[in-house]
């Protein structure tokens, strides 16, 4: 079964945050005669696409609290849920531009900017297999390579198992996907994979999928497809 190892925390590599004055950097303030950089506060924006009770939001909020405590209130992270700073693809672009500072995102939208991170469906045999790969050399190299596109990867996470869901019929074998219109993440690899399986994939952000008709989105009926 496909394991989604898609929770990905990132910080813009070139972005230093906004100081309380909004005009000068930490280094510039530090170098001013008679001015201590320790008196400055810095504000960062962290975004994600889901609700305030989702683990994405809870995790970012915990990070913000820990950072504020350990810096004696000098670094503040404001968390924006529900795509307020953009959906995952837009958020990733915002990191590269410096208009957002942090996010948690699926790997699929990131592949539009960093193709090496595109996750292949049904790649891992188990949760333990996935952890072994991503906590090892391969995972560390993938995180390090993000710096080439102006992003610093902080950690891998997990969002559970991927299920084939729809409002038409049970999906119990690959052939059941023939002709089925199904929402996928915004990833060329996902589009190619589900097209090869005979489905008609439609890429869209999850927040957009919730507004379309049930025949073209994931229903809450959970059915798993066997490993390929």
UniProtKB/TrEMBL annotation:
<feature type="region of interest" description="Disordered">
    <location>
        <begin position="17"/>
        <end position="41"/>
    </location>
</feature>
<keyword id="KW-0675">Receptor</keyword>
<feature type="signal peptide">
    <location>
        <begin position="1"/>
        <end position="16"/>
    </location>
</feature>
<dbReference type="InterPro" id="IPR038404">
    <property type="entry name" value="TRAP_DctP_sf"/>
</dbReference>
<dbReference type="Pfam" id="PF03480">
    <property type="entry name" value="DctP"/>
</dbReference>
<protein>
    <submittedName>
        <fullName>Tripartite ATP-independent transporter DctP family solute receptor</fullName>
    </submittedName>
</protein>
<keyword id="KW-0732">Signal</keyword>
<dbReference type="InterPro" id="IPR018389">
    <property type="entry name" value="DctP_fam"/>
</dbReference>
């Amino acid at each position: 079964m496909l394991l989604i190892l898609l929770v990905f925390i990132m910080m813009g590599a070139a972005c230093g945050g906004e100081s309380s004055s909004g005009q000068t950097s930490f280094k510039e303030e530090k170098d001013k005669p008679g001015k201590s950089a320790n008196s400055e506060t810095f504000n960062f924006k962290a975004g994600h696409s889901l609700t305030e009770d989702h683990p994405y939001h809870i995790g970012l909020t915990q990070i913000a609290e820990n950072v504020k405590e350990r810096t004696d209130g000098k670094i503040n992270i404001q968390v924006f849920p529900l795509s307020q700073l953009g959906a995952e693809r837009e958020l990733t672009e915002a990191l590269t531009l410096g208009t957002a500072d942090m996010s948690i995102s699926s790997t699929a939208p990131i592949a539009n900017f960093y193709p090496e991170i595109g996750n292949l469906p049904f790649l891992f045999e188990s949760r333990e297999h996935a952890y072994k790969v991503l906590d090892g050399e391969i995972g560390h190299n993938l995180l390090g390579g993000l710096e080439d596109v102006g992003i610093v990867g902080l950690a891998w996470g997990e969002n559970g198992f991927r299920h084939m869901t729809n409002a038409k019929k049970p999906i119990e074998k690959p052939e059941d996907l023939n002709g089925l219109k199904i929402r996928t993440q915004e990833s060329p690899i996902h589009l190619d994979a589900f097209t090869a399986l005979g489905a008609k994939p439609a890429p869209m952000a999850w927040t957009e999928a919730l507004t379309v008709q049930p025949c073209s989105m994931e229903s809450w009926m959970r059915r798993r497809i066997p490993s390929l």
